[in-house]
Design a protein that fits this description.
65 residues; mainly alpha; 3 helices; globular
Length: 65
Amino acid sequence: MLGRRLHVLLDDGRFERLHRLAGERGVSVGSLVRHALDVAYPVDGQRRSAAAAAILDAPAAPSPK
């Protein structure tokens, strides 16, 4: 259960980007922020899992020509 609240001020561009990504993924903005925090600052022992999740969540890159 979530029990702590965090107030973060964002510029319009960052908020719109988060809001759009959250909508595309079908999650809340808060869930997206929590996931980003987990990937950026993993708990010791979860570093590899977080790195793998970040790689798997990354958008596909175009193939070089």
